[in-house]
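Example record used in the benchmark description.
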Amino acid sequence: MKASHIFVALGAFFVLAGASVVQADATLDRIKSRGTVVVGVVLSGPPYGYVDPVTQRQAGLNVDLAADIARRLGVKLETVAVTPANRVQFLQQGKVDLLIPNMQLNPERAEIMGYVPTPYGDAGGGFITRKGSGITQWKDLKGKTVCVSQGSNYAKPLAEEYGANVRGMPSQPDSLLALKAGSCFASVHDSAPLHLLVEENPEWKDFELPIATDLIPLPSVIWVRKGEKDTEKVLDGFVQDWYRTGWLFEVTHKNRIPITPLLDEYQAKYPVAK
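Model output (structure tokens):
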């Protein structure tokens, strides 16, 4: 069974499980009355979210998605910079209406938050370390100190399956700084930003991603508060329309993110109208 099929089935399970949650879905009313949608995004670097050094404006895939949601809702956009350590709390405490922080779907997260069923992409972990490390596969990490962001879904498989000594850092930039300083043997984060880092930033010319396969690639979804089915439904319609119009592939290409088999599968499910 394909990984995407597994998560479709998993998503159906959690939708049914969440049906018993008694909670008024006031998010859409609050957004409309306020005239603004507040979206939590992670600004840790290209291609998902960052501040453009020239324009000083926020950019990246997740910022683009948030802007289009605001446009479709007919309201203004307010983005709030969140970190892996505080993003769930910001959503649960009502500091943001929804989260687009390139945060992948897994059972643990689905137990405490709601999510839009149709993914807008997927991501897996990339392993960055200094050149000449001798590492060629994930099992070679046994006993090595590996930095991740706090709350990363990569921490569990790194520790339990591969025997790495996992060190949680407040954010991806903190993790990469620790790697550069020699405090960590390697860092593991979503692979797309790491590939851009070593390919385009001269400061990282001595580093590489020596493992060809990504760690636990999972669907990337928009997150909402648990039980907010109305919000989920409206946003799911937006995501499906991103596929039907071809806009999602356009914005993914623009941000230099590879088109994955999962994206191709959902594009076939929601073909571009001709």
